[in-house]
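Dear Dr. H.,

I hope your travels went smoothly. While you were away I took the liberty of generating a structure for the chain from your last submission, since the lab meeting agenda had it listed for discussion. I wanted you to have the full record in hand beforehand rather than looking at slides cold. The sequence, exactly as received, is reproduced here:
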Amino acid sequence: MFCDGHSKPNLEFVMMRVFWTLALLILTPAHADEVRPRTIEVLGTGTLSREPDQARISFGVETQARTAKETAAANAAQTTRLMKALKDHGIRADDLRTRHYRLSPRYRTDDRGRPTLETIGFNADNTVEVVERRLTEIGALIDVAVEAGANRIGGIGFELSEPQVARHEALAAAVNAAQLNAGVIARASGQKLGPIVEILSRGGSPGPRMERALAMSARADTPIEAGSLQIFASVVVRFSIEE
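The corresponding predicted structure, in token form, is as follows:
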């Protein structure tokens, strides 16, 4: 068999690589044998009840006329009267805005009630949204709006002017509840609760708001009750278990 002077060094190099590979496999622990930290994961919820401090109401003005120009002009005049009356009642300019406006044709219908292509007039719809910060004035505000020309009233929404404050309070209550729950579990299982490892927010109620439908009313002192708002928050907290 033919051998040259380089065979022995090459063989030693290969043997050294095999040796170190085996050494690394022996010294590196398997993933399944790794000791994972012991933890407790609990759910905490926080619920608060708060009185609303403002209301959001939509007033609509709907008009009809023969031509688009006449319809738009009549609607503009009636809406202008409405907005002036609302401001005279104490609504601030930045609490009053146009939410929706639409001008559309009306079509004649046939004997079966199906629309034809013949235009017989136009409809105009202008919706104004109002924020009323004086809850005791809501009933009077509705009556003022109806008398000034509003012929459609949307739902009324009771809300908080600073919803994030209540949201933060609910989150704090949820974390406290999670700590209490984790403590009960740890004591019942003979464990000692360690520090918090992770906190995840699981959402909750958005900006607090409560909708109520309103019927048209033209009589004085329309009764309105605000009620209360429920603010909800939820968190998942993972605690370590001390050895």
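Two observations you may find useful: The beta strands are 39-50, 54-65, 96-109, 115-132, 152-159, 192-204, 209-212, 229-242. Residues 82 and 149 are 6 Å apart (CA to CA).

With kind regards,
E. W.
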